[in-house]
Specification:
Four copies of one chain form a homotetramer. By secondary structure, the first copy, chain A, is α/β, with parallel strands linked by helices. Helix content of chain A is 35%, strand content 20%. An eight-stranded mixed beta sheet of chain A has the order 1-8-9-10-11-12-13-14, with helices on both faces. A four-stranded mixed beta sheet of chain A has the order 3-2-6-7. A two-stranded parallel sheet of chain A has the order 4-5. In chain A, strand 4, helix 2 and strand 5 form a beta-alpha-beta unit. In chain A, helix 1 crosses helix 8, helix 8 packs antiparallel against helix 9 and helix 9 packs across helix 10. Chains in contact: A-B, A-D, B-C, C-D. The interface between A and D is medium-sized, with 21 and 21 residues.
Chain lengths: 338, 338, 338, 338
């Protein structure tokens, strides 16, 4: 894959921008959340999970975020540090903002929901002054999470980071990561996610997220139309996810691909996307071909939905390769050219 | 004790107004909160704990509050209902507000702290329209928690409930329950807590809370001055707490009392006040003498600081009496006339 | 009149608290505001007009307020200073807040309306820190305008000033001065205006304003009930205005009075109340009898509705006496014992 | 000039988006604003002035805005209607927002300042739902004023209008119109103005405004760099104004031009820009050459700074041509190729 040029001689491989939060997962599964009485605490938040996933795979990972100035902020910063992630640009909030929380309800492998604390939380306080041009330029890639665009000042901080990445020739990944919370209207979502998507080299999102993004553009809602629109702008790769039926991947130069999920027994309905993103991006940056990278993304997604946590259960390279070998031996290929 | 007339023929004995929240207490004690990985969930919030405490002792308890419109709101409402508390005036929030959360850190029996989620939470949304004159009039007593005064619209809802109680001749208990969160300035605290205190029949608070209340009044900071000021207004009883050294209680007609704590081994540094309030008020309303009521308050406080939870561990009448009998046998009296 | 003891040996006679604003009155009368093209500018705001009115009559007047930090703030401060009003406690806003504006529409002597700019204006920024105990204690009287209670932080500043006045034995005048703007609900109005009214020595308001104040108190809406309620609290005098048909005045010791308006040709429908308040309070403080003070209030009200401006046209003692002499010669008495 | 294709067969020639406000200009000139006592009222706001200017010159003009739901909203809407401007997409505010106000101080022809009321005003309430795709598509041109980007929701409404214009092939004019009010930070200004500028066909702004726009782009602050950057994006024409020394105009295909001001005696220091924009755009759309259009812009600017009002004094075609003829006879050419 040589469409996008990642300069791996830089100090960092990737800097995700956005949400660091905490997941509280009930230890008593298959029960409504209002009846759960005991919870485990994990580092959470989509870009934070991706950061951990990529660090586990050996990437040099940075992070641009605000965290709470309390014990929870200490927990997540310590967790990152222990994973080898650079925390030099994770700042504490100054007005008592709390870290975002996600309480998960796992009624069954196919029914799960989340209860979020997102009102005025720490990650939304990332502000333009936190964004350092040199830091952005020191990375081979910038990943912007859609949630970081949902309100001010994190929105402007993300747009400033994008501006600096474009100036320095740093490739940009846009992970739609749509959460209904905090956004004020459908038009706002469409306006800001499309603004970033049209300047990104890689766009990752679910079918629903692409449709939200394109709401004002008059497209027909098909993957083909979405991909055609984006590939005419800056994007070289579009990953469009369809939940349990897998994903469709369109590239400017390397063809189109159908990615099937590995047939594992899911424990929960979330976390798969962050596994996908981290293994896919790692492989792509490591120089693997697009189908190879997709296979790794699909494997990591399968491993994550089968485990209790997200961040804690991100696979190492060895675990990932073992999983792929074993699963392919049993079920065959999951990547097909379209 | 006949200074305050509680009409126990009314449908309810007491209606606390204010905070219903959730406590997350780590199961791994004596460790900093940032290192805790597993938590138990309990119903929390000072007036909610008092409601549970009094219901356990046999009182007919109502509640006036707003809770979140999610699984946590369901949990607390179900919990109240299971304790026999009337939930007819607990309303769901309409704009996605979350329930307040308290994460506790129990480093040691003498060192504990809390990390609170209080920004825009459900209980602060209680509004004047939620306050029903007939409901207030249907109770033998109204308890207003100081936290319910910290911001609008719960402040105005509380003041409206106070107005209705005064009109209907319902005695009012003011529990200072000061939490630094959400209040905008020291002057605001002084203004609103003193406004309610000067119309309350019973005032309960720590020495620090009385001093905050009196900040603009030019008193000298002594218990004697605080009590003299309040007893000249509407108050018949002032309970001034001094942490581990016990409390001083001043009454208009029944003398002054020194209340010593029962010498238990504490597990945590909080919850005692809610145990105190519930057992003391229950006994007073049941017609016991002031020193009898204080003994029960002190006993309940001791039982609570020795247990892991607050709401869950509120004692029954029988447990309370057993505790008092055993402790007094070992250590003697704890209530002394001044 | 000796029911209220005003200590005129103090440095100031009165300190009004609240609104200083600007009135823009069209020079082309009897035309809808949307067609007016030329405007005169005057100092405005009810307590500011009263301050000017009392200063013209010879009182030593202070003021407690915030004004804009721009040319309009300079204008009103200079205007006050030129009238001999003490401006030592008029502070400039620090975050760019503008002065409130009132554009008046005078369609006919009986039809006038106003268009107000009140959103986040300077006078609403008066905060508890602005309230100095010594300043309050240095005055023979404190006047609180109802508008100063409509939102935070001016609400808490007013309540703090009230607390200091009560501590220092300074008599309090409450002028209801209700403006729908900025208040959040009918319950808020009732709660805060009644809180101040029940501690005031003199209450002045229209029939509508008294009814708003009493909304949660279960009174029957009659002047008799309003007066009876207030005179049982702290009030010694209640002035209840009925627009063009005059006002009813109830006192604790000096009887009840019917005050008829002097039959002048009105130019506009506002400003009369501020004239009334300033002349009435001046006379009362100067030691005149209640009916004498009311006659002067009624005369000043008549003079104001017949003039183009409010502040600019406040009468001197001589003008007031001439007016009373001439009008009484023509029309006879306007004050009647009930 | 055929670089930009304006489809004049459409129902409208231009739709400005943004600010409609009111100017109060003192009738007593050369005096500090705090001493001014009488004011004339005019329709104001940069895009509103441009709309009036272009309508006077014969263009079919629409407008997209929110105005106050009061007599001032009626005044501006009536004024537009009387000028022949389409007011079908001017909506009234629904939550009592006031129209923006500008009080001008004209100390001398070279010293003037303004005092603005911009807090939460009506024009800032324009929201995405107000933006109708068909309406945008019905115009030969869309003009976005920088002030409309300063806060939400007018920011998102403007970006939505931009999206629709791009979809429908409607050329876009970006008039920087920077006002410090309401913007939260320098980075915000740079981010949003550059986002619109990079998609606009014509960019108009002062040297200062271009520098604010480019703050994050690493340009050197010269007109050449600004123009080179923008002309590589979507822009065909960049107008960079230098106050009294005139403006520099860069085009993709029609060369670069130095525009000198006509040497008139100025009465005030503002309004010139709106005159310039309206006459320049009208001429350009009417098919005149770039230098011809610039000459007309410069003439209109000169006429405006010499008059008391802005909107009221926009010239007709005849007045403009007379002015140019007379001035050129006296002083010669003002447009020079670079």
């Amino acid at each position: 894959m040589d469409m996008i040029s990642f300069d791996l001689t830089k100090p960092l491989h990737i800097i995700p921008v956005g949400r660091v939060a905490i997941d509280f997962n009930p230890t008593d599964y298959n029960r409504p959340l209002n009846e759960s009485t005991n919870f485990n605490r994990y580092l959470g938040g989509s870009p934070a999970n991706i950061a951990v996933g990529m660090a586990r795979l050996g990437d040099r990972v940075g992070f641009l975020a605000r965290v709470s100035d309390d014990q929870f902020g200490t927990f997540v910063t310590d967790y990152f540090r222990a994973e080898g992630i650079d925390v030099s640009h994770i700042r504490r909030c100054e007005h008592g903002e709390n870290l975002g929380l996600t309480f998960t309800e796992m009624l069954s492998p196919t029914q799960s929901s989340i209860l979020m604390y997102r009102e005025g939380v720490a990650d939304l306080q990332l502000c333009p002054d936190d964004v350092d041009e040199e830091y952005i330029a020191s990375s081979a890639c910038l990943l912007i999470s859609g949630t970081a665009l949902c309100t001010s000042p994190t929105r402007e901080a993300s747009l400033k980071a994008l501006t600096f990445a474009l100036r320095s020739g740093v490739p940009v990944v846009f992970d739609a990561d749509y959460r209904a919370y905090t956004w004020k209207s459908m038009d706002e979502i469409a306006i800001y996610t499309s603004l970033v998507a049209e300047k990104a080299d890689i766009i990752m999102g679910s079918r629903e997220e692409f449709s939200l993004m394109e709401r004002l553009l008059g497209l027909d809602g098909s993957d083909e139309a979405s991909a055609a629109y984006s590939l005419k702008k800056q994007a070289k790769i579009c990953v469009i996810k369809h939940g349990k039926s897998g994903s469709r991947v369109y590239s400017r130069d390397d063809g189109c691909w159908d990615v099937k999920p590995f047939p594992v027994t899911a424990l929960k309905g979330f976390g798969g996307g962050d596994g996908y993103a981290s293994s896919f991006l790692h492989a792509l940056m490591a120089g693997r071909s697009l189908p190879e990278a997709l296979e790794r993304g699909s494997a990591s997604a399968a491993m994550l939905v089968a485990s209790h946590a997200c961040s804690r259960d991100m696979p190492t390279e060895e675990a990932l390769e073992n999983f792929i070998r074993e699963e392919k031996a049993k079920y065959g290929d999951v990547i097909f050219a379209l």
